[in-house]
Amino acid sequence: ETRGLGRRRLITGSVLLVAGSAVAALPGLAAGPILLLGAGVVLALVGVVLVAPSVLRPLVSLVGAASGRTVPGQLAREAALRAPRRTSATVMALAFGLALLSFVSIVGGSVKAATGEQYREVIAADVVIESAGQEMLGGVHAAVYDEVRDVPAVGAATRLKYGHWKDGKTTSALTGLDPERITDVAQIRMVDGDIAALSSGGVIIAERVATERGLAVGDELPMTFARLGETVLPIVGIILNTYRDLFTEDMDASIFVLAADGTSPAELTTALETALEDHPTVQVRDQAAVIAGRTQTVDQIFGLVTVLLAFAMVIAVLGITNTLALSIVERTREVGVLRAVGMSRRSTALMVQAEAVIVSVVAVVTGLLLGVAASAAAIGALSTIAPLAWEVPVAQLGVLAAVVAVAGLLAGIAPAARAAKLPVLEAIAHA
To answer: CA–CA separation, 232 vs 241, rounded Å?
Structure first.
């Protein structure tokens, strides 16, 4: 690689990296946070790839120096620095894999934490009763609610109903609730209006919907239902009686239950399970179990992504093996000379292993930096849509880093063994 080409790569890559980072840090523009984030990340990654050969050189030198002043360690550092583009390609393949894993870990953990925190802030219920196996989608027979209220351990209970309505071609969800009891088990944050106004019949809309459609309390909202057809409801809220007028089914989606004074959530759960034994399709769960159920989908999605990324990491680790093997082929004569002047087989193997460690450590550092930076940008963009806090699982990232470092060390075993077994005279005679 010529000096001029390297300078052009560095300048171009730096411009793309800065531009991409700037775009990813501007989630509030009209183009949309996710669109901006994607465009910014792509630009930044291209920039990282271009600047990697130049930027990684001092990092490789630093890590190599930290590996010790032994002859094998110094030779390993020089070997890694000798072909910067090849070394950077190997490092970046492993670094990108770790970056994606750390990104998934941080974003997934942040989403789960935010989901649980929001649920705890809004829902004060100790126990939630829902249809077993059909979380939030199935129905609980209306008679169950009456039985729940008769349980002595119950301090307060209310129920929610879910349905859908159409506004032109758009289908939206609708929730039916009891305004007299909902405040006992949930925190309803009103931007405008009063929850008590629900008793007059009408609807409550989300702040986002009001902003997007230019609606306010007192306006009327045209809504189309399967049963009534098109109707107009005032924007105040919706109560169970209004819901019954709009929908044919009389099934509850959820029943929120608060324990009576002096009753623990565990005692309440046991009492409800006993009272509802005749309803096998109903499940009674405490708050922790409900939150776990709500985040189960997040776990499944990020778990699948993690498995796919793990396969990519295996391929990247094999790339280290291939790079070191190619390096040994190119340095066959050098290895022969080193052996001829007194380097032992053990030192030869340590030299190759040290090179693998240097590449792995540099990849770990680079990957973690990229993953943490990308996750911060992603959380910043997503927080404009839903409240999210950036949480870094340090212990989990530490385990990932250790696994990648050990995998890199193992990747160097085969090339190290091959280098140690090279016949000295044949290696020296190698063209």
So the answer is: 16
